[in-house]
Amino acid sequence: MADNPDYQYIDTAADLATLCDTLAARPYIAIDTEFLRERTYRPELCLVQVKHEEVLACIDTLAIDDLSALSALLLDTSVVKVFHAASQDLEIFYLLAKAVPTPLFDTQIAAPLLGYNEQIGYGNLVNEHLGVELAKTHTRADWTRRPLPDKQIEYALDDVIYLETLYLDMHRELVKQGRLEWLEPEFAEQARPEKYEQPAGERWKKIRNIQRYKGPVLSIIQQLAKWREIKAREINQPRNWLIKDDVLLSIAQQQPDSLEELGHIRSLDRKARERFGTELVDVVVQARKLTPEPQPPFNKKQKLNSANLARVQLLNAWVHQRAHELNIAASLLAPQKVLEKMVTGDGRAALSGWRDPLLGEDLDALLKGEAQLSVGKEGLQLQRD
């Protein structure tokens, strides 16, 4: 653990309210969570770690019935919430507070603008930026056990102790380089509630190769997926513990209209058949009477011909040169799929936000033949006509 052993262990609603009142007066808080989701539909929040300067605390969310003070702090727009790889934390807090905590700062998203790899893990970022090697001994720990061992708590607290330092250093450097505002669209995208809502009726769209199906089979898939999602929520079990996707597809294709016919589906295990058989048959019978919902648009990726591939490679060469000059990961500056869109029809419009001022004019000129690349002492140079 970092050299900061003094922390509060919060396990009552009264202490939580006091802590949150203190943190509400601070400009930011570093936050991390520990949770389990292997055995449940919803992630089971076990611990929340928070830090701001001298305030360091573990919130035992399993011990506290009323977490409204924490929800209020998360939704306080005067306090920046600092995370690393925030998506799972935000999903949990969305379920808790019925809204996404804002404003937020995600050190994983910010890292590539300061020369680090995209999707860099927390441990690697702490190591590369701070020279600290974090322990990995409790990566697979059971966070539902109580009391939590001291070493496990120390492991959890390290995730916010160093996160605060990362945030302060990165924020300072981003302001210095004039890049802090570049992150606003990315953080806004993370905060969209649609990312964390899970409408039961939409789940079928996530089934692999769903575009292959139509007619009654598609209708049955849609209704079975909806039934499974609702049932998984009711009993709080992972959806695939009820019925896996391949089994769901087998039921839809064979369309059993009785328990006897359902028994002929070998991939459906006996326990699921005995527990949910009648409901499954009812869903199949009713779904056959329905018109399936339209399939979402499916755009098959077109293979680039040799000429367009050469154009992408030309643009990519300049992207890497500019990435080197700006100390930004090239894949963040202009991903391959963006360059492909530029070449195959979208042009400069394929670049988004802060990327266009840095690259748009140059790449547009290269595509139109109004500029060329040459080799110089510092790498590639762009020469305009």
Can you characterise this structure?
With 385 residues, this protein is an alpha/beta fold. The chain has three domains: 8-195, Nucleotidyltransferase, domain 5, CATH 3.30.420.10; 200-287, HRDC domain (DNA polymerase, domain 1), CATH 1.10.150; 306-384, DNA polymerase, domain 1 (Orthogonal Bundle). Helices cover 47% and strands 12% of the residues. It contains 16 helices and eight strands. It is flat.
Short account of what is shown:
This protein has 385 residues and is α/β, with parallel strands linked by helices. It is 47% helix and 12% strand.
Produce the secondary structure layout.
Layout (H helix, E strand, L loop, with lengths): L7 E3 L2 H11 L4 E9 L7 E9 L2 E6 L7 H7 L5 E4 L3 H11 L6 E3 H4 L11 H9 L19 H27 L7 H7 L24 H21 L3 H4 L2 H10 L4 H4 L7 H18 L18 H21 L3 H4 L2 H11 L8 H13 L3 E6 L2 E6 L1
Parallel strand pairs: 1-4, 2-5, 5-6
Antiparallel strand pairs: 2-3, 3-4, 7-8
Helix pairs in contact: 1-2, 5-6, 8-10, 8-12, 13-15, 13-16
Name of the CATH homologous superfamily of the largest domain:
Ribonuclease H-like superfamily/Ribonuclease H
Largest sheet: 6 strands, mixed
Globally, the shape reads: flat
CATH first level of the largest domain: which class?
Alpha Beta
Structural class by SSE content: alpha/beta
Helix content: 40-55%
Mean pLDDT: 92
CATH domain topology of the largest domain: Nucleotidyltransferase, domain 5
Number of domains: 3
Helix and strand run: EHEEEHEHEHHHHHHHHHHHHHEE
Q: How many beta strands in the DSSP annotation?
A: 8
Please mark out the parts with pLDDT under 50 across 5 or more consecutive residues, or reply none.
none
Give the N-to-C terminal Cα separation.
59 Å
Number of helices: 16
Based on CA atoms alone, the radius of gyration comes out at 26 Å
Tell me what the CATH architecture of the largest domain is. 2-Layer Sandwich
Strand fraction equals: 5-15%
